[in-house]
Amino acid sequence: MKKIFLLLTAVLLLVAPMQAKDDEPVELTTTFLVMMPKQKASSVKNTLRKQEGVSKVEVDADQQKVVVTFTSDKNTESKLLNVFRQMGITAAALETGCFGSKEGCINAIKPENTMR
């Protein structure tokens, strides 16, 4: 019994430091559906690139989609939606990475919101 306890303790001591802490920044990617003229694609890309924590921006003007990768400690989905709003563009977050997001899963299906 002591051997099993010692083995489990050793495994926990090795695995625990490998797990990310809740407050550690995480890189998140969110897809936004937008309503914008094709001519605004480059200005949208440039404006989003200047936002704090944003590392990558992909704009698909034909599909009216913008994909933004950002660091969770520097930005949020809500802040990025405000940037779109300030540019006069209607946007909605289609999907996002949930783990590490300060706002959680913004499009998560919660049991109380489902039809029975």
Give me the secondary-structure topology.
Blueprint (H helix, E strand, L loop, with lengths): L1 H14 L11 E9 L5 H9 L4 E7 L4 E7 L5 H10 L3 E7 L20
Antiparallel strand pairs: 1-3, 1-4, 2-3
Word description of this protein:
- The protein is of the alpha+beta class and 116 residues long.
- The chain has a single domain (27-113), classed as Alpha-Beta Plaits, CATH 3.30.70.100.
- 28% of the residues lie in helices and 26% in strands.
- β2 (54-60) and β3 form a beta hairpin.
- The chain is elongated and about 70 Å long.
- The termini are far apart.
- Mean pLDDT is 77; it is low at 15-20 and 108-116.
Q: How would you sum up this structure in a few lines?
A:
The protein has about 120 residues and is an alpha+beta fold. The chain has helices spanning about 1-15, 40-50, 75-85, and strands at about 25-35, 55-60, 65-70, 90-95. The chain has a four-stranded antiparallel sheet, with helices on one face.
The CATH first-level class comes to Alpha Beta
- Poorly predicted spans: 15-20, 108-116
Query: What is the count of β-strands?
Result: 4
Report the structural category: alpha+beta
**Helix count, DSSP H or I runs of 4 or more residues:** 3
CATH third-level topology: Alpha-Beta Plaits
Oligomer: single chain
Average pLDDT confidence is: 77
Taken together, the total number of domains comes to: 1
Rg, Cα atoms, Å: 20 Å
Classify the helix fraction into a percent range. 25-40%
Query: Rough shape?
Result: elongated
Strand order within the widest beta sheet:
2-3-1-4
Largest sheet: 4 strands, antiparallel
State the order of secondary-structure elements, H for helix, E for strand.
HEHEEHE
Beta-strand content: 25-35%
Distance between the termini: 48 Å
The CATH architecture can be given as: 2-Layer Sandwich
